[in-house]
UniProtKB/TrEMBL annotation, chains A, B:
This is Proteasome subunit alpha. Keywords: Proteasome. One of its GO terms (cellular component) is proteasome core complex. GO terms for biological process: proteolysis involved in protein catabolic process. The keyword Electron transport does not apply. Pfam families: Proteasome. InterPro entries: Ntn_hydrolases_N, Proteasome_sua/b, UCP009120_prtse.
Amino acid sequence: MTYCVGLMLKEGMVFMSDTRTNAGVDNISTFRKMFAWDVPGDRSITIMTAGNLATTQAVISLLEERSKAVEERNPSLLKAESMFQVATLVGDTLKEVISDNAEEGQRADSGFNATILVGGQIKGGAHRLFMIYPEGNFIEASADTPFFQIGETKYGRPILVRAFDPEMSFDDAVKLLLVSFDSTIKANLSVDLPLDVRVYKTDSYECEHAFRIEANDPYYLDISDGWGGALKEAFGRLPDFDLNKT
Amino acid sequence: MTYCVGLMLKEGMVFMSDTRTNAGVDNISTFRKMFAWDVPGDRSITIMTAGNLATTQAVISLLEERSKAVEERNPSLLKAESMFQVATLVGDTLKEVISDNAEEGQRADSGFNATILVGGQIKGGAHRLFMIYPEGNFIEASADTPFFQIGETKYGRPILVRAFDPEMSFDDAVKLLLVSFDSTIKANLSVDLPLDVRVYKTDSYECEHAFRIEANDPYYLDISDGWGGALKEAFGRLPDFDLNKT
């Protein structure tokens, strides 16, 4: 499995993805699931993938190849005029890869499906975040639903639902995502560190902060160790239940 | 969907189940998923069900019918000599119902599967908790894994993993389950109040506390409202992240 989250903040966007892939519990590996296309001053695009690894790698390779020689190839992420066009392009590529695999050759035990988050900003437009389905269509984050999760989304959702606030700072947003990822990692073998992070400030047209959090990262360990205690304290402060009153 | 949890404590056992069933989001109903067979002084057995409602209702009806005229009918929950025999009987009944449906008649779009938690104590044995699979086989809770969840388990798991302690009191255990259920209810439409609760004290051979928590229960609302704030406070007390140090 996989866990990736994209947050829309007032200040900009924060993306985080894990790196664990597995084909059964006896075959786990580390693969990057976050990819970026940056043209400083013009655009910054971040893509995160969940699902069949062969599918997502093929999609990324096709998008990559088509953006290398921009003049010759079309369509390209580097020539798209809006984030909507970017999402359409990624959706079309995803659909193309899945149907190529599904229609021909051997039948697979598992599906070829994948889901993709695409976020960023292109000069002349707003910063936008899309979730792209295996069918190639997509939905966009809004003020009512300012974040998307893909992959193993359930364990880490309650803390996002309770504590996420689009007004929060980048620092707080990264911290919140680490708590959400830690809750998932503690409960599910199919999500694990290292974690990839990208932070995009609105109207900057470049990604100022792109980094990886390794398994032995001291701040991550502080959060992971501290959250158990903090939760127990929070639990202790809630009013007590009294069985004898039932 | 459904959410049910059974906890093994040093003091005894606590069971909680929701009551929402759905066949699509446009067809939701309230059904009890917790059932009990109590013979004060001899045995106290609690069963919670998740999965296809027709299957689980048939299983409960069969178990019920077979225990009504104990002298005539065998096997019966009221005659089983150990909790292991109870689990075997429930497993066999579940398997029988599923295979009856699966082998004959029309094919259904959805599966006939169900999963069942069975816990309790029979005089002469220890209190035990089992999770029964659709295939009729089962696993038992132990010191290493002292609780089982069935149904929509993921949202409510992180708080159980972090805060559950077999040494905790019944009062704290009910409070913890309410937090776990509230996290699930907040994130997923397919789980909802009222919640059924049963508390069994080891070697009491009767269930002293069996009650229902309604949607407007003031204590539940306190927990639900308070937990958001408590989580935010806990989050605030964790060390801050600083992007500029990455």
